[in-house]
């Protein structure tokens, strides 16, 4: 128990602990968004195929989000179970959790490998509306990303091994390594080597594999409190159930991002200027990932710190984890909101070099989208932080309910209504802050009810 008592999650002041653990997680999560936004920036600026390439990436993005969702959801379950096991002194269970996490990562990869081989082209064609060029480009990109998705999936697993023991800096270094490689290879593959959209895909998967390898190295060298063994990889129904008792909800929550992206794409496809709206939405949504993933970074910090102290039955520190976790998430969301409002045109300008007037039109649409939609980021930050609290306390349905509300139930009808207006390219973006505000209001009583669980410790 001596090692457990000395763990920083049980002794450091909570506010400082949230920032110390949270900043590396924020950076790590934001860097996940870098892969897709860098691909988009390079592809849309690659010449006459840029606009079609942006649409292809937009239509492929829901599956990429789903890969992240299932990996991160599984990782959240691993994170919560590992942190709670270590906090409670059950090292044997923690070791078994690590092994079963690796097993689940292998199973998830096989599923996406099969989708990449047989489902990528039909999925793109469903959204492309008969545009063969976009279908071909999107299928090529998505097939590569799925067939070599073991890097993305494996990294989300090993990242949680590091985060669960408080070594968030190592997970950030791993993520930075892959993101930097992706940026360099995007340029090399797309421009000097003229590999087109396939080059963007190869740059992405190579960067993800590099992140995985670095994370594995850090885990096996530094996580001395965890013991690795082949026997622990043998599946345990009890451990897998406990992982997905929390992780399934998290995977479904993250998966709602994919559902939202696909649903809005299909709705916008029925509007006037459908291609412009879809292309603009695809770019905006990837830019928005910076804000969302930053909030997820602090939400994951809440899960680690709150799970650990809840496992130790330290009610006072658990309540402080909730308080400072939510406040710090609101601060981060507010700062990003201000930055996006001030630099919306510059952010959109990264994607404004596409051929002809299409590039200028897309820049204008994305600028307007950023200015309007970022109003909802503070409400989004609150809802995401509440989800982290609920997951750490063992709730599965409440966090999922919040995701379904903010990403589907309160979004799709409003987006559809705005597409019926004459000025849809400027008004449709109001659907997102409206949905975030309403979801935050609904989240308040859920949080108050769940927090009472700590009084039972």
General description of the model:
The protein has 20 helices and no strands. With 457 residues, the protein is mainly alpha-helical. The chain has one domain (12-456). Helix 3 (14-44) packs antiparallel against helix 4 (50-87) and helix 9 (168-190) packs antiparallel against helix 10 (196-222). The longest helix is centred in the N-terminal third of the chain and has 38 residues, at 50-87. The chain is globular, with a radius of gyration of 21 Å. 60% of the residues are buried. The model is unreliable at 1-5 (pLDDT under 50).
Tags for this model:
single chain, 457 residues, mainly alpha, globular
Please write out the topology:
Layout: H1 2-5, H2 8-11, H3 14-44, H4 50-87, H5 91-118, H6 120-128, H7 132-147, H8 150-164, H9 168-190, H10 196-222, H11 237-268, H12 274-311, H13 315-342, H14 344-349, H15 356-373, H16 377-392, H17 397-409, H18 412-419, H19 424-427, H20 431-451
Helix pairs in contact: 3-4, 3-9, 3-10, 3-12, 3-13, 4-5, 4-6, 4-7, 4-8, 4-11, 4-12, 5-7, 5-8, 6-7, 7-10, 8-9, 8-10, 9-10, 11-12, 11-17, 11-18, 12-13, 12-15, 12-16, 13-16, 16-17, 16-20, 17-20
